[in-house]
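Objective 1b of the project was to move from sequence-level analysis to a structural picture of ligand recognition. The entry below was assembled by the postdoctoral researcher (A.K.) and checked by the PI before modelling. It contains the amino acid sequence of the target and the SMILES of the bound compound, flavin-adenine dinucleotide.
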Amino acid sequence: MPTMMSFSTLSLRALLLLGVWHPGRRSFILAASFQEPPKNIAVVGAGIGGTAAAYFLRQEFGPAVKIDVFEPDAVGGRLATVKIGEHEYETGGAVIHPLNLHMKHFIEKLGIPPRKDLPSKMAIFDGKELVFEESDWFFVNFFRMLWRYGFGFLRMQMWVESILDKFMRIYQYQQFGYSFSTVERLLHAMGGDGFLTLMNQTLEEAMIGEGFSQVFINDVIAPITRVNYGQSVRVNGFVGAVSLAGADSGLWAVDGGNKRVCTGLLYNSKSELIPARVTSISVKVRPSKKGNTISLYEVNYVGESGSAHSLYDIVVIATPLHQGKSDIVFSGFSPPIPSHYSGLYHQTVTTMVHGKLNVSYLGTSEPASEFTVSDILTTDSKGCAINSLGSLDPVHIPDSYKRPSASHTTVWKVFSPRPLSQEQLQQMFLSYSSMSETPWLAYPAYRPPHRKTPPFILHDRMYYLNAVEWAASAMEMSAIAARNAALLAHHRWHEQVGKIDQEDLHTRLRGEL
Ligand SMILES: Cc1cc2nc3c(=O)[nH]c(=O)nc-3n(C[C@H](O)[C@H](O)[C@H](O)COP(=O)(O)OP(=O)(O)OC[C@H]3O[C@@H](n4cnc5c(N)ncnc54)[C@H](O)[C@@H]3O)c2cc1C
Ligand SMILES: *[C@@H]1O[C@H](CO)[C@@H](O)[C@H](O)[C@H]1NC(C)=O
Ligand SMILES: *[C@@H]1O[C@H](CO)[C@@H](O)[C@H](O)[C@H]1NC(C)=O
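Corresponding predicted holo structure:
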């Protein structure tokens, strides 16, 4: 259609001349001049990654494309709640950083409010006693930290802030439509060689290199990596920094449960939810109208009504391709795509207990009625069977709600690497009326130096989000990977290679916003 072509090229040039063309919002006119838009897209998995991918794919490809999202279990994946008594409680991904801009954008777009904020109080348990207990007074905490660790505490905040500053660059790149073909390139675009080095070192090595003391790392840093990733300070430096940012103030959650974002995004993207498990994906080559050949992806799946298959132009895999997480067979690909990449997922068991805490278990002599600590972290010591213990607020906080002290029966959440035994529970709780246990294969077992991360691009038009978890696993990381995959899918479909893997974006975009 030559007339259409010249019209759209003309209008593009006119827009560029007028300076009103926003590369962040590429027009569909431009896209149409290269190739017809795709007709069918499959997304495998309806966690935050898959549903965010559906949302961003809709944004990139417009209203006509059909988007199917496959999910055999509950929408939300690792964002899930359990009901205890009258209320729901988060069992998986719980807190969101104030600078997680995609998550923030989602709730604004979907009109879901953040959960009401309640003050919290932290303590650190070494398996025998509480070695640190936060005071209600900021200055008391400040001087206690200063007394024990000198300026280590302030320096830590500065270090994390400098990493976060670089991390934030990704939002500008994505706004301008830039995408990356691998986790390494994405990290490099954000933080240069420094970020790649962080990926290759343990957090401990990185922090010792920055001059932090071993005592500070053991006493303060280890409890944070343990509560956030169930692992020691030997995780990679990048996920370690993400973990430390997760100890910032201003953390938030979604009112009614974080998984609401997933159902909201599915609805907003007008995609179809197919309640089925994808079993295999293969490439089919078909002759096209124009006389050449086109390849399509055949997605085979099993649902309640049996097995079936459908053909797609583009596929986005939004579940980890690892042992115990999914078993998808990829057939007919060259080079072959494995069902499982190397590397394991780490187990964290969430135990929710509705009961009365045994405060003496924590080695404190405070009476339970005065014990108002909400978050108990733990040091990396032999005696510690748990990663953390916290008094848990429901996903929706009624106006009249006040967090009860430890003398009341309330809901506690315990993270541990293994299920808690009957004896352990009886030690920790004076009594309990209900207990629910969720064993998660929660996030990667981080063991730097890092082998090669799985790619974002599995095949011509097949993309993989969860490679990003090997840098760090978090809701926002999945959302960033989802936007990246949607941009990649768009640019590769329309052969706009100038928007992929560009070097030095930070300097080039300086002054653009
Ligand atoms: C205990 C715990 C605490 C956490 N705390 C936090 C936190 O405080 N803050 C934070 O940001 N992050 C946290 N995380 C991490 C965060 O939850 C994850 O990084 C994020 O939810 C991953 O989302 P995802 O969509 O990429 O993957 P998932 O949520 O795992 O979604 C993948 C989906 O794919 C589906 N699936 C699997 N195989 C197939 C198949 N063959 N066909 C179709 N569908 C399939 C699965 O059923 C699943 O629903 C925590 C995780 C856990 C487990
Ligand atoms: C990370 O370490 C591995 C193995 O030691 C090495 O092969 C790789 O080049 C390193 N990568 C970076 C970016 O330093
Ligand atoms: C409470 O914990 C203490 C210290 O671990 C223990 O000695 C005691 O037996 C526990 N109480 C109950 C009722 O289990």
